[in-house]
Amino acid sequence: MTSSVPIWKVALLGRCPRCGQGALFRGLLDIRDTCDACGLDLRAHDAGDGPAVAGIFVIGALTVGLAIWVDVRFTPPLWVHAVLWPALVLPASVVTMRVAKAALAALQWRHRRDAS
Fold first, then answer.
1. pTM (2 decimals)?
2. Which of these, 111, 100, 112, 105, lies nearest to 17 by C-alpha position?
3. Is residue 87 assigned to a domain?
4. CB within 10 Å: which end of the chain, N or C, has fewer?
5. Total domain count, the chain
């Protein structure tokens, strides 16, 4: 358990940054207090607003570009945009925030364990 789990595995699978076995999240976006597999204390790992900013920049830019392309290419009625984009943006935003939050928690754990 001395070697750390790759950050991509923590981020994409939502696993503990130390053991790679226990779930990192309790619910959709809440980080657990402790790892249920190795007992790592996860309370100090706070991603702050980073995941939300990642969602705004990445998903927002992609959505605006795609919305303009769809409007120019297909010229759909306004109600199609009103139905299509929220249905795509909301799940994509949650996934982006979850991956970013897990990656930031893994980076915090990796860099703080050397300092302590």
1. 0.85
2. 105
3. yes
4. C
5. 1
For 30, phi and psi rounded to 5 degrees? -90, 125
Helices 60-74, 78-115: inter-axial angle, 10-degree rounding:
160
107 found inside a domain:
yes
> Cα(60)–Cα(109) distance, rounded to whole angstroms?
29
**Distance (Å, whole) CA 105 – CA 44:** 9
In a domain, 2, yes or no: no
Residue 32, in any domain of the structure: yes
Q: What is the dihedral of CA 67, 69, 77, 94, to 10 degrees?
A: -20
Q: What domain range includes position 31?
A: 7-115
3-state secondary structure of 23: strand
8 A C-beta contact, residue 24 and residue 102 = yes
